[in-house]
Design a protein that fits this description.
147 residues, Four Helix Bundle (Hemerythrin (Met), subunit A), 6 helices, 67% helix, iron ion binding, heme binding, iron, Cytochrome c
């Protein structure tokens, strides 16, 4: 019985991380990108009526997204790492452009946070800021992600 439980734990661990070592650069950046997506979806959901709009929560999520936007880049080593990645080889071959797009995303999230510093928030401005974040993500994906 103990052996069976151990095997089940291993299988569940591998399934939970998609077979990627969560401590590897690939595992860490996937985790950050997943968090970014979830937070971004909540922000957009509030503005698009899918989630109840809460000004305080919106501001907190904007700050969280801004903090997250600075994290994944450290997990892109200078050479392509092992593992099934959605990143194109261009990430490693065109580092200057990749870093430029990373800084652009960081700028869009900072502007989003700046739009949440004075209540009441202007929802039309917030919508533009969230769209800018989404567009920034998409532009990087178009250049550097395998779909």
């Amino acid at each position: 019985m103990l052996k069976r439980g151990f095997l089940l734990a291993i299988v569940l661990s591998l399934a939970a991380c998609g077979g990627v070592d969560p401590d590897s650069p690939l595992g860490k950046r996937k985790a950050v990108f997943k968090k970014m997506l979830n937070v971004s979806e909540d922000l957009g959901g509030m503005l698009r009526g899918r989630i109840a709009y809460n000004e305080q929560l919106f501001a907190e999520l904007a700050v969280e997204l801004d903090e997250l936007s600075h994290e994944p880049w450290q997990y892109f080593p200078t050479v392509k790492d092992d593992g099934k990645t959605s990143a194109r080889d261009d990430v490693w071959q065109r580092q200057e452009r990749f870093q430029e797009l990373a800084r652009h995303l960081e700028g869009t999230t900072a502007r989003l946070v700046a739009s949440t510093t004075e209540a009441p928030f202007n929802k039309s401005v917030l919508a533009l800021r969230v769209q800018a974040v989404e567009d920034s993500c998409e532009s990087c994906h178009q250049e550097f992600r395998v779909y």
